Amino acid sequence: MRAFQILLLIIASESFSAFANDYLTLLLDEALNNLIASLIKRDIENLQLHKSKLLCTHFDQAHRKESGKGDRCK
Hints:
Elements: H1 2-67
Signal peptide: 1-20
Protein name: CLUMA_CG003709, isoform A
Keywords: Signal
């Protein structure tokens, strides 16, 4: 009887260990996906900001040539 209880305890602990391992793997996978998504979002925002600064500089230079006035983008 005692050996059977020990065997059940070993099986239960192995099953729990496998479950915990799978659960932690899922949590880490989700965290990694969230991190990648936030990095991509940040990069896109930085690229959009850089693009708007470049466009602003380009149009500002064209405006100065045409009107002789100062910066419009500041």
